[in-house]
Amino acid sequence: MDPGEFCVVCGRTGRPLTDGVCADCDADRTVLLTAPERGEVVVCSGCGSRRVGGRWERAGSPLVPTEEDLTPFLNVHPEAGLRSVRWEERSATATVRELLAHATVRFRGVERTVDVPFSVRTVTQSCPDCSRRSGRYYTAVVQLRGPADGRSERPRELRARLDRLWSGVLGEARPDVRGAVSWREERPEGWDCYLVETVAARQLARIAKQRFGATLKESATLAGRKDGHDVYRVTVCVRFPAGPGPSRPRDAA
Ligand SMILES: [Zn+2]
Ligand SMILES: [Zn+2]
Q1: Phi-psi region of 217 (alpha: psi -120 to 50; beta: other; left: phi over 0)
Q2: In a structure prediction context, what are the per-residue pLDDT tens digits for the chain, which is 253 residues long?
Q3: Does the CA dihedral 208-211-214-217 come out positive or negative?
Q4: What sections of the chain are H helices per DSSP?
């Protein structure tokens, strides 16, 4: 390093420079850590497991969000490393906690502490296992099926294909709509997905129609009476079009 070179920001000499700026000054003017305004953690109130993407994991976790839930929401500058985070709770309601992340971040050899506000909403649901155990509460069923004309697609392959399509549908849905899906069961002709919100079932079916070309058929069955009203369960049969590529010959082993 040329001993005469100085940081263009602070003027100090004798320090490694990047684009004329020393590491201290660079760290001061770089956004090292951010968080979205609000995040959501979906917790099973029965067993404490978390819904991450399409699956449930970490059964036995506390019902309130922990570091393990919170830290993944933080976005660290690609050239920085997150050394430690301490979460301070500033206020909390039954479902929303306002937090402050006190983070230590390392960047170009210097450490900085950064405070980032973050608010997390806890959504409680019943995971598929707990739903089954607790008597299978649901209000709607979305049936995932192949084309009605019965192309020769083996049940196993059909279910794998429907599974991918359903993941695509869920990926396009809002988190609260996704969250209404409780559990699903395998059928020879596809999958039956059980939901705790009828509105969510219809929205998912609509996404399947609009984005994936599925056809829909809705029916209702009387499930009983509650508070003097008939209670219906809605079933939406979602038929996806035939998959791409050649179908297997019917007589292939
Ligand atoms: Zn400097
Ligand atoms: Zn559970």
Answers
A1: beta
A2: 566 789 999 999 998 999 999 999 999 999 999 999 899 999 988 889 999 877 889 988 988 899 999 999 999 999 999 999 999 999 988 889 999 999 999 999 999 999 999 999 999 888 877 876 676 778 899 999 999 876 678 888 999 999 999 999 999 999 888 888 888 888 889 999 999 889 999 999 999 999 999 999 999 988 777 777 777 899 999 999 987 654 444 444 3
A3: positive
A4: 23-29, 67-70, 128-133, 155-172, 175-178, 198-212
104 CB-side CA count, 13 A: 6
Strand partners, 226: 229
Q: How far is the CA of 42 from the centre of ligand 2 (A)?
A: 11
Q: Which residue has the tokens 């058929």?
A: 217
How long a stretch of residues is the chain?
253
Q: Where are the domains of the chain?
A: 32-125, 136-239
Q: How many CB atoms lie within 10 A of CB 111?
A: 12
Q: If you measure from the C-alpha of residue 13 to the centroid of ligand 1, how many angstroms do you get, rounded to a whole number?
A: 8
- What is the 20 CA–ligand 1 centroid distance (Å)? 9
Centre of ligand 1 from the C-alpha of residue 80, in Å: 18
